[in-house]
Amino acid sequence: MTEDMQGRKVAFLVAPEGVEQVELTDPWKAVKNSGGWSELVSIRPGTVQAFHRLDKADNFDVDKTVPPTRAADYDALVLPGGVVNPDHLRQVPEAVQFVRDFFQQRKPVAAICHAPWLLVEADVVSGRTVTSYPSLVTDLRNAGAIWADQEVVVDRGLITSRGPEDLPAFCSKLVAEMSQHQPA
To answer: Where does the chain cross the membrane (predicted)?
Structure first.
């Protein structure tokens, strides 16, 4: 197995505010350090406000917006967590469809912490084994997922982790899975 993401383009989907900064920046660095190219996708142009738990952290420039950006433009998707970030995104039909399209196109998707809320809304977890921040267990089970209390779970191209403490394992697995997938 190679861990070379050369030529792979990865979308990081975030809301205008509420993304957990380290869950954005650590996977971003992992993709970059393995030769991949990332773009920050949001639901409106400008900047996004990241957080460190409940405290404001850095702002990041948005590269593209949904719409018109499409899953077909990328090889993989990363969904960082933070409580507000996925809660906001799951209320935006275009963001939900963007996520759903990655699954329909059988492309790797990585989601950490509270991000699986967006997977529930996209109706893509039924029958899959996943993990998440513990407060999402009931939501995921009600959506048909099998929840596992593990630092990282991989199920048919879906990579999930519980939270920031699992970032080393999450980043390693997302690079490995995305490296195996053939670029679009």
So the answer is: none
